């Protein structure tokens, strides 16, 4: 009888310690609707940006994202982005995205014709300072053992 009780207590403990995932949380529809529309990244800043290069989204140098265009469609969580800066790689891609109730954007950059469920890698960025005409996405990176925010400043395009 003691063994059954111990096994049951152990099983209960293991099943009650479920980890939560950023993709398993509820959606923040209000923030998603606020992000709906066409945007351009006006600046990318972080401490030491004059000396340290950051490869953003495993695509290009972070400074190549300045001037990039982004479209967020909130009713189906799709959109697209395009790098357009001179002397940088030319890149354009569909995206899928959503905002969870923790204020985090979960973003996937897709290849043409690729379904989001087939893409295993994505990015989690924090939303900050949202207004009708601008918002920021913050990406935490490790620079020399110190966690640093890369700030992508978005401006609405009419």
Automatic annotation (TrEMBL):
PROSITE patterns linked to this entry: PROKAR_LIPOPROTEIN (PS51257)
Record's protein name: Lipocalin-like domain-containing protein
Leader peptide range in chain numbering: 1-24
Top-level taxon of the source organism: Bacteria
Signal recorded as keyword: yes
Keywords (A to Z) from UniProt: Signal
